[in-house]
Specification:
The complex is a heterodimer. By secondary structure, chain A is mostly helical. Chain A is about 70% helix and about 0% strand. Chain A contains 13 helices and two strands. Chain A has helices at about 1-15, 15-40, 50-55, 60-70, 75-85, 90-95, 95-100, 105-140, 155-170, 175-185, 190-205, 230, 235-265; strands at about 145, 150. A two-stranded antiparallel ribbon of chain A has the order 1-2. Chain B has ten helices and 14 strands. The two termini of chain B are about 35 Å apart. In chain B, the strands form three sheets. In chain B, strands 6-7-8-3-9-10 form a six-stranded mixed beta sheet, sandwiched between helices. Chain B is α/β, with parallel strands linked by helices. The interface between A and B is medium-sized, with 29 and 34 residues.
Chain lengths: ~270, ~300
């Protein structure tokens, strides 16, 4: 199993597209920091996203600002790409059959590919935070947050940031597993990626329709932003816990179906 | 000794299409068996089922005396190339070989790399990205990849696709040498001449069904056509044979003649030549595999 994971990871890490995606994940937070430095935001402009407003006080909030913005779409596309290409990409090139004519169980191969997709997706999320942190510290310094009597030390901010990164990475798992599941069912990696992005957008749209009532609580993106209170000092334990649990059925059902489908699939490409 | 490859009444249905219909044949150790049939005959589907890529709808398959299922451990003793040789395009040829080998949990140091690279004959290009390779280079690397594990069985689908005549000859010689060393080879090909030159046995398929199976020699030994070599004037011999009632077409095939016997017996043909004062050196059955193949398909339809 470890050999398979190493092989899969080795393939992905030698792929230019992986580095382009991770590079973009690093570049956007830098652009955010530069933009905030060049044109400090006003309360009117960013009333709904306090990260931007407060970032000028300490660089430790810039990664939060970048993560909040990028988890709305860009990170979704990146992780959907990693997961959507995992099986379908190799199937379309014919390389999947070259692997499966070896004594490699399909379940093991699937697990190795999912591990690789998840690892790269976590790496993308961490990259956003690390690049944002570096750019933020350069632009606004390494300070505690002291605004209108609200105080958060550097350690508290870093800890909250780590918690936010972990939460976002976990919250993307439903999308990752969905893209991966579709990837086992098609030879088109673009199709699997678009299906996952489509699921995310649909979930976001439905989440905005308040008439749907409690149904919205079960949408995979419903609690995606629950983590930001960690940094801003709000009580978020219940929301985040619900957000964590919300992903579980999507992950379990998605993996179970992918496994069931792939074991029965005829490799014809 | 049980057969190395055994297909027992296998069928494969894709929706309404019956791609393989109740196919049975065996391949014994050391045989080079050719799988022959027109496009859509079910050759590739049969090979895919043999190595666990496709699940049969009915029947059973055994490989090296073990049931076939996806990822079964006996696949470690099988070198397989199905359709075109596929690689990760942005990796070098050598890295592709390494990752392919290590995916099976084996150490690359244990692979027969030198032998494989000799077959691939890529020189320094083995360090270049595969996407820069010609089709022939990919195909050679694909054949090399099947040999990494010194397999007991080779399953090859159109192995000489994209190769030039010199490379095709090298592959044919490689397969012959490999079989002589005790390995078993099952290959499909559209090239009848290739099957004829390489294979000891042949399985003919059409529309998913078995048409016939046996040795190439048996299949081509029918008496329909004979090759005649004479001691004397070949032009006169041709003229004599063409004037003999019941003889079909007479072709030149230097240094002799290829004669379609029609209703004439071989003995009558010899008698006619001797009567015309032409000495007969050789008369042998000379039905080419192509004739046999097309004849079989014609009978089927």
């Amino acid at each position: 199993m470890l050999a398979l994971v190493r092989t899969e990871l080795s393939k992905q890490l030698r792929r230019p597209r992986t580095w382009v995606a991770l590079g973009a994940c690093a570049l956007i937070p830098i652009i955010v920091a530069v933009a905030l430095k060049a044109s400090p935001p006003t309360a009117q402009e960013h009333g709904e996203n306090p990260f931007f407003l407060l970032s000028v006080n300490t660089g430790l909030l810039v990664p939060g600002a970048a993560l909040r913005v990028m988890s709305r779409l860009f990170l979704i596309v990146v992780v959907a790409l990693f997961a959507g290409d995992a099986v379908a990409g190799e199937a379309s090139s014919g390389n999947l059959r070259a692997v499966l004519v070896r004594p490699v169980g399909r379940g093991r191969l699937l697990a190795a590919k999912l591990c690789t997709a998840v690892t790269l997706s976590i790496a993308a999320t961490v990259t956003v935070a690390v690049a944002g942190l570096a750019a933020g510290v350069v632009a606004f310094g390494f300070h505690p947050l002291d605004v209108l009597g609200f105080h958060r030390s550097e350690g508290q901010l870093l800890l909250a940031l780590a918690g936010g990164v972990g939460y976002v990475a976990w919250s993307l798992m439903g999308i990752i597993v969905f893209a991966f599941m579709i990837s086992t069912m098609t030879d088109s990696s673009a199709g699997a990626t678009l299906a996952a992005v489509g699921l995310y957008l649909t979930s976001q749209i439905l989440d905005a329709i308040s008439a749907l009532g409690s149904v919205r609580n079960y949408l995979p993106t419903h609690k995606l932003d629950a983590w930001d209170g960690l940094i801003l000092g709000r009580s978020v334990g219940s929301d985040m816990w619900q957000g964590v649990l919300l992903q579980v059925p999507y992950i379990v059902l998605g993996i179970a179906f992918a496994w069931w489908w792939f074991r029965r699939k005829d490799i014809l490409s | 000794m049980p057969p190395v490859i055994e297909l027992d009444h296998i069928s494969k249905r894709f929706g309404r299409v019956l791609a393989v219909d109740d196919l049975s044949f065996t391949v014994e150790q050391g045989q080079v068996c050719g799988l022959l049939g027109p496009n859509g005959a079910g050759k590739t589907t049969s090979l895919r089922m043999l190595v666990g890529l496709v699940h049969p709808s009915a029947g059973s398959l055994r490989l090296l005396d073990a049931p076939v299922r996806p990822g079964v451990s006996t696949l470690a003793r099988v070198g397989t190339m199905i359709e075109h040789a596929a690689f990760v395009p942005y990796l070098s040829g050598l890295t592709n070989l390494r990752l392919y080998w290590e995916a099976g949990g084996a150490r690359f140091a244990d692979a027969a790399l030198d032998d494989a690279l000799a077959v691939a004959d890529l020189g320094d290009a083995v360090h270049r990205k595969v996407k820069t390779y010609s089709q022939g280079m990919r195909q050679r690397l694909g054949i090399a990849r099947t040999l990494l594990g010194r397999p007991d069985v080779l399953v090859l689908d159109e192995p000489t696709n994209g190769l030039d005549p010199g490379e095709m000859r090298e592959v044919r010689e490689l397969l012959r040498r490999y079989a002589e060393s005790g390995a078993t080879v099952l290959l499909s090909s559209h090239l009848l001449s290739e099957i004829e030159q390489v294979c000891s046995h042949v399985v003919v398929m059409e529309r998913g069904r078995l048409v016939t199976a046996g040795t190439v020699r048996d299949l081509t030994a029918a008496v329909g056509t004979v090759y005649v070599e004479v001691d004397g004037d070949v032009v006169a011999a041709r003229s004599t044979l063409e004037s003999l009632p019941g003889v079909g077409v007479v072709h030149d095939e230097a240094p002799g003649l290829l004669v379609e016997l029609g209703t004439v017996r071989r003995a009558d043909l010899v008698a006619a030549l001797v009567h015309a004062g032409i000495g007969v050196e050789t008369v042998v059955s000379r039905r080419r595999l192509e004739d046999a193949f097309l004849g079989l398909l014609h009978e089927e339809t």
